[in-house]
Every structure is written in C-alpha cells, then in structure tokens.
Design brief:
The structure holds two protein chains of two kinds.
Chain A lengths: L2 H15 L6 H16 L3 H22 L8 H41 L2 H7 L4 H5 L1 H33 L4 H9 L5 H26 L5 H24 L1
Chain B lengths: L1 E10 L2 E11 L4 E6 L5 H8 L7 E6 L2 E2 L5 H8 L2 E4 L11 H12 L4 H14 L15 H13 L5 E5 L7 H18 L2 E5 L3 H7 L2 E6 L2 E6 L3 H4 L3 H7 L3 H14 L1
Parallel strand pairs in B: 3-8, 3-9, 6-7, 7-8
Antiparallel strand pairs in B: 1-2, 1-4, 4-5, 9-10
Helix pairs in contact in B: 3-4, 3-5, 4-5, 5-6, 6-7
Classes of the chains: A mainly alpha, B alpha/beta.
C-alpha cells in the first residue's frame, strides 16, 4: 500500500471509531481500564524521566551560561521555558509513543491474529468503537495531567540538581522560574499535548488493528507504529 | 435454511470462490470440507459477513445478508453464533465474562439473570466451576467448550464453527463433535461446520458440501459419501487406508 492509501485507510478507520457507543456501561468500563493501562501505568516512567531530565536540562543550561555577565536566575528562566514548552509535552510524548504505542499495537495486533476482533464483529459489535475510542478518550483526558506532572517534576529536578551540584543556588533558580512567567506557556504546552495524545492513541491503533499475519507481523507493526507515531509527533511539534 | 447462489470472492485479483451455489439445511449439522486452500474458510467467513462477496447472494431464511440495513444487520448478527478455530476468547476476561459478554452488550437483563444464563450454558458444555478461570488456564478442549458456550448464550438461530476440532486429541474432538450435534438438535439451530476431520464428516455430517479449488465439487450426506464415485471426493476423503477400510465395511454391510 502507498502512503496515501494508508492515510485514507486511517481516516476511514477514524470514521468508524467516532460513533456512539453501543452499550455505554461496557464502554465506560473499557474507558476506565484504558485510563489505568495507558495513563496510570505510565506515571512511574514519566515521573522518573522528568525528574532526571529536568536536572540535566538545568545543569546543561548552567554550564552553558557560565559567565559573570549572565545572572544565575536566567538558568531557572531558561530551564522553565525548555521544560514547559518542549521537554514535558514533546519529549514525554515521544517516551509515551514508545511505551504506550507499542502496547496498543501489540495488544490490538494480537487480538487481530487470534480472531478476537473477528469475534466482536461477528457478534455485531463495532470493534473500532469499542477498542479504540476508549483509548483516545483516555489519552486525551489523562495525558494533560501527566504532562503537568512532568513539568512540575522536571522543574523540581532542576532545582535539586542545582542545589546538589552547587552550580547555582535554589533561590536564584526560583527567581528565574518566577521571572516573566506567562501562563500561556502552559496552555500552549497542553494544546500540543492534546494533539500528541490523539496521535499516540490512533496511529498505533491503526497499525495494530489492520495487522495481517502472525507474531512476527505483530512485532513488525509494533515497531512501525512507534516509528510513525514519533515522526508524526515531531512533525506536529514543528508545525 | 441458508441459501448460497453463485458466490464469487477473490483477493488481490485472485479468485478464491468461483460461483458456489448450495444450501444448508435448517436445524441440521452441515459440513464444508475440502483440502487446505480450497476456500473453506473464505466461504465460511463470507457466510458470516466477514468477507463481502463480489458477486452472488447469501440468504438466511429468505433474507439476503448483503441487502441488510445497519439495523437489520445488527439484528441478524445477534442470530449468529460463531466458534473460531482458535476459540478467539477474550484473553483478559474470565470464562464467565467471556460467555456473559454478548448478554451484556445486547440485552437489558439484570446481572443475576445473566449469571443464571451463563451458568446454564456452561453446565450444558460440561464446564461448571470454571467461571473464574482465564482462557490461558484452560486446556484446548475447555477453551473450545467456552467458545461454544459463548456462541449459544444468545440462543442463536445459526451456529458456525471453523475447524472446531483442530488441535484437539481424538477423544476430545469426538466430545466437541457430539456436543455441537446435541446442541444443534436440542435448540434446532442451523449449524455449519468447516472441517477436514473425516471422523466429523462420517459421524455428524447430515449435509456435506465438498469444495475443490474454490468450486463446489460435490454435496450429499455422510451416507452418500461412502458410495460416491466423484474422483475428487474419493481421493480426498479416502486418502487414508483406515477410511478405505471403513468404507468397504459400510458398503458390505449395506449390500
């Protein structure tokens, strides 16, 4: 299939995904499960990475702004903007593309090759609506909280790194955080997060749902899904 | 009754089903047999609507399935039970949840009523006390029985089975065959089974359709199969010496 055919098939898939759920109670149960699987189970890795990468960003900024003419508070200022605008929404989304994307593709792909999706279709259930829509809603609902947490932990990680390394003081760091703080940065970051969340939920779902073959095909689809999700996140970020 | 008229289906320019016309008897165990690659699974999946035929019609008691509106299709789907080759159980759900799933989706029964129905069908397939097990904790035969239970929980009019005996030992295969036949008779379901298990053909095949390279090459009963001189059927069914001897014994006894 050409790239254009894939794009067309992806949008046809979305057309089937966005229908009214056949049974709200079942859908709600599926949604709660997806929030747990896609959101809550990603908390650990996001918290861990945010804290340490936040520290690295602050340290690198400090080392590169090592000049008597540049106030140390600029380290906090620069780290804040990097973390809020790029690290939290984009870098964390790329991490989630790998973790969550591969999970989505492999679980849907396995359902496909073991005919569980066929079983749903034969029963008269819109399998895309039941399997993919909860993932989209869970991602759109939970990932902004995840990214906000990443921002906070990243900034905190920066503070800890500075205080422990002695490259800058905590007070200077906090002054930098407070300097020229524009709440629109958070809005901008969360808007990007929503777009990235949609990509993370739908692109791996597409690859998993339409997989053909056996276990190797599922593995291959999982890799392709992560690659394409990452590419689309980077392109969307650039746009 | 299920009637198939001039069914054609192909993939990527290759025709797999080449104008099949046949009918499946209401309330009976109908078998589709043929070599690997003859089109049995494509035919079965076309019957249940997973493949859309390029030409031809499939009608269920006079209703053509490709002409259904969305509402009619939904209703028709609830009249179908399907047992897949690999059982296709939802592996994150317990036996009870698997069997209850169609009831939850399509009925407004209370949980206690659904549980009663689930326990009734699990008892019918001899799987009491397995409600809380996951599919991975079950043997192949038990998984098939759960799949059968899930397929009949909504009291379907039509039951389709794709190689229900595959991967099972001979004893368990007979148990599954007998279970399917008993359920067919008890609930007056029109059953269509896709198989290349010759024991199933001889034991439970009330109507047999033989496919050869995408074409219907023969149809008859499990008694007719002993006396047919259709070369394709004979070379397929009696490829083993054991079955040749069985045929010889049957023919001698019926003379």
């Amino acid at each position: 299939m050409t790239y254009l055919e894939h794009v067309g098939k992806y949008f046809v898939m979305l057309g089937r995904v966005f229908k009214k759920p056949q049974k709200p109670l079942i859908f709600y149960q599926a949604l709660l499960k997806e929030i747990e699987d896609l959101g809550i189970k990603s908390l650990g890795i996001i918290m861990f990475i945010s804290f340490f990468i936040g520290g690295v960003i602050s340290l690198q900024t400090a080392l590169n702004l090592d000049s008597p003419f540049i106030p140390d508070s600029l380290i906090g200022f620069a780290a804040k903007r990097s973390i809020i605008l790029e690290f939290a929404p984009t870098f964390c989304s790329i991490i989630l593309a790998g973790k969550v994307g591969s999970y989505i593709t492999s679980s849907l792909g396995t359902m496909r090759v073991t005919e569980q999706i066929d079983a749903l279709e034969v029963m008269g259930i819109n399998s895309l609506n039941l399997l993919v829509l909860p993932k989209i809603i869970a991602a759109l609902f939970f990932y902004p909280f995840l990214i906000l947490l990443a921002m906070c932990l990243g900034i905190f990680g920066g503070w800890v790194a500075g205080v422990l390394s002695g490259l800058f003081t905590g007070a200077d760091y906090i002054i930098g955080l407070q300097t020229d703080f524009d709440p629109f940065l958070i809005v901008y970051a969360l808007t990007k997060t929503l777009i990235f969340s949609f990509i993370i939920a739908t692109v791996p779902s597409y690859h998993g749902y339409y997989v053909k073959g056996g276990s190797i095909a599922v593995g291959r689809a999982s890799t392709q899904a992560v690659v394409w999700t990452t590419i689309l996140i980077v392109v969307a970020n650039y746009i | 009754m299920i009637e198939v008229k001039d069914l054609h289906k192909g993939f990527n320019g290759v025709e797999v089903l080449k104008g099949i016309s046949t009918s499946f008897l209401a309330g009976k165990t109908n078998l589709i047999i043929g070599q690997s690659g003859s089109g049995k699974t494509v035919f079965l999946k076309s019957l249940i609507g997973l493949h859309v035929p390029e030409k031809g019609t499939i009608s269920f008691d006079g209703r053509i399935n490709t002409a259904f509106s969305e509402q009619e299709k939904m209703q028709w789907r609830q009249e179908i039970g399907m047992v897949f080759q690999g059982s296709a159980l939802f592996d994150s759900q317990t036996v009870e949840e698997n069997v209850m799933f169609p009831l939850k989706m399509f009925t407004k029964k209370k949980t206690s009523e659904m549980l009663d129905r689930v326990n009734t069908v699990l008892k019918r397939v001899n799987l009491e006390n397995s409600n809380k097990k996951l599919p991975a904790e079950l043997s192949g035969g038990m998984q098939k029985r759960v799949a059968i239970a899930r397929a009949i929980v909504m009291n379907p009019k039509y039951l389709f089975c794709d190689e229900p005996n595959s991967g099972l030992d001979p004893q368990t295969a007979i148990v599954i065959d007998n279970l399917i036949q008993e359920i067919t008779e008890e609930f007056k379901i029109t059953t269509v089974i896709n198989t290349h298990d010759m024991n199933s053909v001889i034991e439970i095949g009330e109507k047999i359709v033989f496919l050869n390279k995408g074409v219907k090459a023969w149809e008859g009963t499990n008694k007719d199969i002993f006396s047919t001189d259709n070369e394709a059927v004979v070379s397929f069914v009696y490829s083993s010496n054991l079955l040749k001897k069985v045929r010889d014994v049957y023919l001698n006894e019926t003379k």
